[in-house]
User: Which sequence fits this backbone?
């Protein structure tokens, strides 16, 4: 059956009824008569030609079609909330930049990448979300995010229309608390035999390259901790639990903020930094600023 245009007021009522599990409670929440809510729900079902709710015990629960519709309804109203917020910020002379940062990306790198957006003539309200890479890609595809900053590229597919922009790369260096740096800085990298290391977990893009580099140096360190979150790794490193790899370009920041010292260079080991953007007709000015400034803070 061919559907007609969806009435978003009807869709909103369906969303409330699905959340409340009852026409009576939904009507109380909406401040309307039960008959009004029921009629508008029936109108929505007629317009799409499918039953969206079914009685299960004392509750109304979504049918299979209802579950699909509810997923889209949540996205629609979330985007509506974001649109309203964006319009309010536009009135205040601001533009919102919603950035996803993968938990494996060093936070100091993310901070540097965002500087171009924060120093525009246009005022930017920054909203930062941090989670696993795959979850961020899903949010980007749904336009919940404007850009994702990460340490890996992604290949576009028919269902995932995204673009990977290489922002730069840096050779890596091993850092450690002062006592560890003094102890293992001599005869580096041979001094890493049995030395305590903190490493990213094996699902991290950098981990495989670190393991290969250690094999090439013919050393077997003592891996005392593995972390998905880079910030958690550096927290333990600050307390001297083990040494850690980080981009050499962050040496000054690591000395100042973490109190860690260089142990030795790993010049053959490099980390790359990417911005992942989605396909949009209207380009976000802050995202464009990040992409255009890509070479300055990350000279190889």
Assistant:
């Amino acid at each position: 059956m061919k559907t007609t245009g969806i009435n978003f007021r009807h869709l909103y009522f369906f969303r409330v009824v699905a959340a409340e599990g009852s026409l009576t409670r939904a009507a109380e929440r909406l401040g309307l008569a039960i008959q009004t809510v029921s009629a508008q729900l029936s109108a929505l079902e007629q317009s799409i030609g499918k039953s969206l709710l079914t009685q299960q015990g004392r509750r109304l629960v979504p049918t299979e079609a209802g579950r699909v519709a509810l997923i889209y309804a949540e996205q629609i109203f979330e985007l509506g909330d974001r649109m309203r917020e964006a319009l309010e910020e536009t009135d205040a002379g601001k533009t919102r930049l919603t950035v996803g940062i993968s938990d494996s990306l060093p936070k100091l790198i993310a901070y540097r990448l965002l500087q171009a957006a924060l120093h525009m003539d246009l005022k930017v309200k920054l909203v930062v979300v941090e989670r696993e890479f795959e979850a961020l890609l899903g949010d980007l595809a749904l336009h919940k995010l404007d850009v994702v900053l990460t340490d890996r590229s992604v290949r576009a597919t028919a269902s995932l229309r995204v673009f990977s922009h290489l922002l730069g790369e840096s050779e890596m260096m091993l850092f450690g608390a002062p006592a560890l740096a003094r102890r293992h800085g001599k005869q580096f990298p041979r001094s890493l035999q049995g030395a305590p290391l903190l490493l990213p977990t094996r699902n991290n893009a950098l981990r495989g390259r670190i393991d290969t580099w250690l094999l090439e140096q013919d050393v077997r360190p003592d891996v005392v901790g593995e972390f998905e979150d880079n910030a958690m790794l550096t927290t333990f490193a600050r307390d001297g639990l083990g040494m850690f790899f980080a981009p050499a370009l962050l040496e000054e920041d690591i000395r100042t903020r973490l109190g860690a010292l260089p142990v030795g260079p790993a010049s053959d080991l490099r980390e790359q930094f990417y911005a992942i953007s989605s396909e949009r007709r209207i380009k976000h000015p802050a995202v464009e600023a990040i992409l255009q400034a890509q070479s300055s803070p990350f000279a190889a």
Remarks:
- Residues 64-91 form the longest helix (28 residues).
- The chain has a mean pLDDT of 86.
- The domain at 85-168+274-292 is CATH 3.40.190.10 (D-Maltodextrin-Binding Protein; domain 2).
- Strands lie at 53-56, 59-62, 94-102, 123-131, 147-150, 162-176, 196-200, 222-227, 244-247, 261-278.
